[in-house]
Amino acid sequence: MKHLHYFNPGHETAVFWGKTNFTPSRNVRKMTEDLAFLPAWYAKEGDLIFIENPENGSPEYFLPAEIYPAVKIVTTNGLKEYKNEPLLQATPWGLSPDSIHRLELLKRRSAVPLEIPVWKNSYYTLTGRQTAAECLQKITGHLPELVFPAIPVFYSDIEEIKNYLQKQNGNCLIKTPYSSSGRGLLWIKNNKLTPKEEAWIKGAICKQGSVSIEPILCKVADYGWEFLTDGKGNISYEGISPFYTNQNGSFINNRVDSQQQFTREIYQMVPETTYQKIVETVTKVIRETYSYQYKGCIGVDIMIYKDTNGTFRLHPCVEINMRYTMGYLSLCLEKIIHPDSEGIFGITYQSNSTDCYKEHLDMQKTNPLQIKQGKIEKGYLSLCPVTSYTNYKATLLVK
Hints:
It is globular, with a radius of gyration of 22 Å. It contains twelve helices and 18 strands. It has a nine-stranded antiparallel β-sheet. A five-stranded parallel β-sheet has the order 3-2-1-4-5. Strand 16 and strand 17 form a beta hairpin. It is an alpha+beta fold.
């Protein structure tokens, strides 16, 4: 069955609000428009990529033929050409009542035989950070011989949070239950809240009902484990992708290289037997928790950190993303990079679209793309069209 892919970032917020007519923030709407072609890089041959605004640039004009994904771009009007085709599977970046509603409208307008996922009430719980904390609890229970970080605690009362902080010796991190990619985070750098921090927490609790809190670890490296589930109890481990964040925890980019290279690096910090044991346990817990209810991609963020003795440890479940992820997309980009090269895949934003377009042209000039044996050996590539109206870029720099 062919898939119709639809890019809808920021879906955790849409899940939280639970509305079929949810309106994302202006920035999220712009990201949706600028990066609509992004699913092409993880789509299968023959799949369709839905682009709402056809004036946002044509990918076939900016991509070399050797690496152009074997997909087709469709708009609302263009999709009508497929009304006599076999059944299509609608596949949004993330499932939410809003994304399902938009796909249902698209189906009615185009009269295309489109199979749309059904929203389940359990998805609301599975998307939140509470489920990630429960999975971490299960993982630690399966591996009592290993040392793991504290389980995040959820509070809905500011006084309980203050009591928690008074018992801590180090800094803490507060998170809202429905957020991702570095959003909804508050870094507490001592065990006493400032008036501004207290106001932030009260606002978060008022909006989402609770917040989680956990000690800040001495982070060494971030990675994501990527999985695919079929909704029938089966799960496949797709690979690992290292990623980088800024000091506030917001996503910057992913490294794109071989799986062997990444595991070699990890084995220098965590013993191979320990690492493999944790991977197997996490796979089992994710399968039991998600794979019987949800079909699609799941990303589990993990972390290598140092404990108070300077020993490397592995945090097996920092958060769980029940959607496609930049990490999974990075795994798929490995196939277009030459084996002797490595790349950096990132998402950037510039408020001035003219500057964004100029930077794109400059990068093309200073880092021209070099193709060897049908794969990128070196150079800069924009994974989505860039025009004078673009603010968000998805880029790949290969060396």
